[in-house]
Amino acid sequence: MDRSIFRNPKSGSKSALKLGAKEGLITNVWRLRVIYFFKSIIPSHVVNDHQLWLTKPEDIVEFTEKLKDPQYDLSMIEYVCIVETIADIYDLMNFFSTLGKRLPVYARVLFYNFNWLWAPLFRISGLLGFSRNRTFGNFYREGDLDCFLELSGWEITRRIKRFIFPFKIPFLSGFFDQCLVKLPFFRNMAINTFFIARRKGEGKIGDHSATVLIPCKNEESNVEAAVSRTPQFGKSVELLFINDQSTDSTVEKIVQCQRDFPDKNIVLVQGKGLGKAEAIREGMQAATGDVCLILDADLTVIPEDLPQFYEALVSRRADFVHGTRFVYSHEHGAMRFANIIGNIFFSSLFTYILEQRTTDTLCGTKVFWRRDWPLFEEMRNILKHSDLWGDYNLIFGASRYGLKIAQLPVRYFERLEGDTKMNKRLRNGLVMFKVASYALWKVKFFS
């Protein structure tokens, strides 16, 4: 063995293991499938200049060399897409550690790993010339990847089982690669797993301005309480009321509060009277805060809890935080029995679709970065504008595009003033089921 004990054996190694390896007959076909899939989960508003594609082993080598240059600027990159299997990178720890120091905190890395159960078939395929010749060492288990990323400052936010066949087979690929592969047992047969990774939260990243969006319709008795009870947090707080064509004196109360609370930044936006989802959309056009928080005007989730949501987001414990009313006990009379049963059903359905535990789907309090709003607008289009409340657009959008989702338990109290807007329970339940059905196909099976 021609190697000195005084020399680091890693120093002369190639950064991509398959550099120069002969491509197989289906290598390029597979590469195009990966590229097409990655493009399907990158939001359409992200321009090409904010994407970095490592398509071949040569690209990985060139990129790794560029990372050694302290002047190499990655500050505008939002997505790094690695089209070769992650196992082809020689030193994963060094690669991700260096990447984490250069990319912005909100950047994502898309990559995939082959299923180690397929190793014998890959070996045979390589010998026959259909694919690159791979040894068993080119296959990691998911637990290994979790370890690599955690120790290098990253975490996986979404895992997608997508393909059983490496190339399209007429009439079969659609069923096998989009439906069957998502079912128990057959998930283990997927040829690979796609991953979306983010940098782990490493403490608070500074104070940020916040906008509290308060959609309201006939909430005249709750306006002043919402203003007076909302605490100050972050760099500044904007209280943005969206009046959804109220027929009482809601608008007058908001204007009065603007005069009575000169120390608070109170903004009034007129909605179109089309429901909560559209009211939030109107509000987002006027919102100026870095962090956006939604607060229902009935105050059943109290405004005093908003700083907890803000801290969870700016500390990067999550990219999207929604409240759950089903961890703490409710105040007596806060929620009707039919609503509880409906929430249990939809929480179970959401848990299956999102592949993470979900205990509450319609808690109105949700927090996200304003920069991520285009993701939720894209999900609205995917769900065919069917979500009347906007909660599902937010939750499913966060999941589809790999935001880290967290639930924050809140105390739920009885409404003291005004009337509930959730009266037509059967109709509302059917609408929710329709939206969840769209998500089942578009998020679970066809993404």
From TrEMBL:
<dbReference type="InterPro" id="IPR001173">
    <property type="entry name" value="Glyco_trans_2-like"/>
</dbReference>
<dbReference type="Pfam" id="PF00535">
    <property type="entry name" value="Glycos_transf_2"/>
</dbReference>
<dbReference type="InterPro" id="IPR029044">
    <property type="entry name" value="Nucleotide-diphossugar_trans"/>
</dbReference>
<dbReference type="InterPro" id="IPR050256">
    <property type="entry name" value="Glycosyltransferase_2"/>
</dbReference>
<protein>
    <submittedName>
        <fullName>Glycosyltransferase family 2 protein</fullName>
    </submittedName>
</protein>
<feature type="domain" description="Glycosyltransferase 2-like">
    <location>
        <begin position="211"/>
        <end position="351"/>
    </location>
</feature>
